[in-house]
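Changelog excerpt

This revision adds worked examples to the README so contributors can see how folded entries look when concatenated. The first example is reproduced verbatim below.
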Amino acid sequence: MPELSVIIPTYNESKNIPILIHRLEDMNIDHQIVVVDDNSPDGTSDVVEKLASKYKNIVLVKREGKLGIATAIRDGMLASNSKYVIVMDSDLQHPPEVVPKILRELKKGKDVAIASRYIRGGKSDFSFSRGIISKVATLLAHINLQETEGIKDPMSGFFGFRRDIIQPEQIKSNGYKVLLEVLVASGTRNVVEVPYRFNKRATGKSKFGIKEFIRYLKLLLNLSDYLMIKFLVVGVSGAILNLLLMKIIVGGFHDPLYMGAILALEASIVSNFILNNYWTYRRRRSSGSVLRKYARYNMMSSLGSAIYFAMIFLLTAFSVNYMLATGIGILASFSTNFGGSQGVVWHL
């Protein structure tokens, strides 16, 4: 049994795959190459079959249609039985010379080793627009998935992992960003990054497009248990409660503005905390006692509250309607509260 399986999903890569396989075979490592082809019309599987007659460590998995990279990796795992798995693209943008470095880190005891474009020594040959998309996608992953904390390149498609940290059936999507599924499903923090240069595609066309980005957003929402949407819904409910109480206390009872602002704010904090603790962050209920989390939530809300009050009194001083000023204050403090909730209150 080889110690390493290199899983390579393919679709229309007949020109690139022989170059990649020859370069992998030149390396002095105990490995098998598992090519999972989605019925490529350019004859990719035929090319692999010819190479398999020369190299006896090649396994070809033929599939009936274009089913996606994630399921290809799952099927590749099912067709292999090695201790370590490395996933890479077939278009030569992932240099195979990095494979031994990834394997070395896994053999040292790391659960996951990521070929990273964004640590010292790494580089990406992205176009400007593709680079922006990558950075935005990375930011969204960091915001929504605590499992990516401290990882510079959680969007990498070039990574390795110990086979026993995840089962094939735990890979459920059909998109590109399988590393996120591995990190979330395994829950491991025993991760290291290895620098590499993301090369320009040698031949063929990239499969990345708007559909893949939409799939990524769906995957992110699913892996995070729709955390961002839930937090937003809770925030909106708190804002409505805040505005209603301001209207009642200030508009109805004609109490001083500052008294209405304080009471309305604390009521919305209590409401938001209860909903977030038992709904938004239900997967992180083990992050501490309820009273301790509530104390931290109030503490982390203090900065947002300062912004909230500053906006109300500053804007009303310039004759802005108090209801409009309250709404602006709520929006200004929202991002602060979200960051504090993620990083302090419900941080595992």
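The second example, added in the same revision:
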Amino acid sequence: MTETFQRAVFVGPKQIRFDELPIPEPGPHQALVKVKACALCTWEQRMYTGEEHFYPLAGGHEVSGELVKLGQYVHTDAQIGDRVMASTLNRCGYCESCRRGLDNICDNSRKPSRETDVPGPAGLAGYVLLDDYQLYRASNDKSFEEICLTEPLACALRSVRKGQIERADNVVVVGAGVMGMFHLLLARQAGARVIVSEPNAERAAFAQKMGADAVIDPTQDSFVDRVKALTGGRGADVIFCAVSVAQAVEQAVEAVAKGGRVHVYASIHPRGTKISIDPNLFHSKEITLTGTMSQNKEDVLQTVRMISQGLIDLKPFISLVLPFAKLEEGLQAALRPDTYRVVVTM
């Protein structure tokens, strides 16, 4: 009898189908990973609520597991039985973006890279089939729950690296959700003084516990005025927008210092939302407005090493761990403001 596993598929708002599939055999350049943990990103949350509607979708892209099989021509330092991180983002390697070093925004990232009945990263499942470049060895001493957070931390790492933070820079992180908190930790490691803007009192308090030098409540005070007051009137050297609110970007441009940089980390919703900015600010202050998307291979490699070597502690951000059978309960919990990352285990 053929061995099978379960895979979760989003088929509509608050509708999840569980497919029973045969365990695949890896091709010559592939690896088979037994999924042990998958964190529930805001993307899966939006698919669940219907805010995003790319149906059907085999979700789950923050994945860790155990390496169980390797194809004949996979050359890796990971051994069978090792704990690994599965980087499920497709990078074709031959489109113009990949060849220009932008494999994080590969032109073919959403096109099928192998024969499949349902598109998507498919990490919410018992097994995941990877191409060789998607496999990263992690420390066998770290929990699967921590290792699966490699993907979101790598996204934040790319953002912070692009921010070109220098020691003693004044950095503002807008939003104290899990991604804002990852920016806080990484900016602190880079030697910056970090200000966090967050209206939720519990999250603001948590940000201070995690090392924020100052916290702003933008509903009580003018964001721009408070940033300038906290930076001697100059403004912030770098501002990371880790919320999906367009107004945050507009205010960040007003609050950044001369020569400063505003980074749009979070996608803005609803998609297609426009912002209004005085273009003379770019002329007179020489500021930069940019953003980042996902992560590249180097970001993932550095992040796996950070987690494996204990250079960053992600345990405070694992709010809830539930079995795969309680996926829907996990998604509902992930939508609450009192959770950071909810992880399902297989």
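Reviewer comment on example two: The longest strand covers residues 30-39. DSSP finds eleven helices and 15 strands in the chain.
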